Amino acid sequence: MRPLENVLVVSLEQAIAAPFCTRQLADLGARIIKIERPGGGDFARGYDERARGMSSHFVWVNRSKESVTLDLKIAGDLQALRGLLCRADVFVQNLAPGVTSRLGLDHGTLAARNPGLIVCDISGYGEGGPDEQRKAYDLLIQAESGFLSLTGTGSEPCKAGISIADIAAGMYAYSNILSALLERQKTGRGRRVDISMLEAMAEWMSFPLYYALDGASPPARSGADHATIFPYGRFAVADGEIVLAVQNDWEWAALCTKVLRQAALEKDPRFKTNSLRVMNRAALKAIISGTVGSLSLEEVERRLAEARIAYAPINTMTDLWEHRQLKARGRWRQLETPVGMLPCLLAPGQVDMHISSVPEKGAHTSAVLQEFGLGPFGV
Known about the structure:
alpha/beta, Rossmann fold, formyl-coa transferase, domain 3, 2 domains, six-stranded parallel sheet, three-stranded antiparallel sheet, 17 helices
């Protein structure tokens, strides 16, 4: 039996944050009924066509769900959704601020009919405060949380290559829902979970916040190098690039003697501590690059492994598809989609995971409404 078997989740979701949350719940066996608008449905379906004609974003976060199309501007369809929520264990939504309250789908209204319901609202800024009604998307929260101010080079900030603000919010929604389900086992009652994308990212920004405590200077943008530890970052080798990480003075000594083969460098007064190495990073980077730049990736990896210094090649997406460790640990499965079978990854920590198809928009409307006795709305 999977951990969330017999848990019914109804989601009024779009884009990434809420769908990513509910996909985690689906992976643990929960039944996810995804409500979509007639016409285009979840707008993430149209982000791209790179997954053999389907949106790469949509395939990623919408496996193992049932799609029901309802037009919530129609009284009958809205009533059908309310009927589903009377039977649900969890309701997850990330519509624009205020929409669900206007529709009578807020926690207070829903809990009057279903006291055990857990309602998870995901928004950019959370309920209350001057920014409550602001719409938010991933890149905007990367900016507002200060992430962009730390990421990039000295001359230009850069966004993360993935939707980290959405992912952060989705994972906090997921963990809070699991907590609420455990709480409900003791109390018999559900509760509201209010997840803010800004607060999720602010939590992830806590190290630089403390680093810049009391008006101190924040970590500088440092490209692919660590802002406050060095040498920890990207170095060119003769036939590629590698990232290496020296975390302490023992590893610094091993780098000098076993990798660079310059034992005297360990005692150089410019580099005796991490703070000094950061302060003099340009000079030290030139020294390291002067040695590893003439060596092959294979030789540099061999030396680093012998010195017990952490390293990683800078892989492409092609490299990741073929990664030996993911294959060796059996992390790949096959996923049914409307365009045929696609590979998919098991979520971390899971081996006996519930995985079923990515749904066509509205594919389950008639069956779900008939199952719950809600009439032929939205078909």
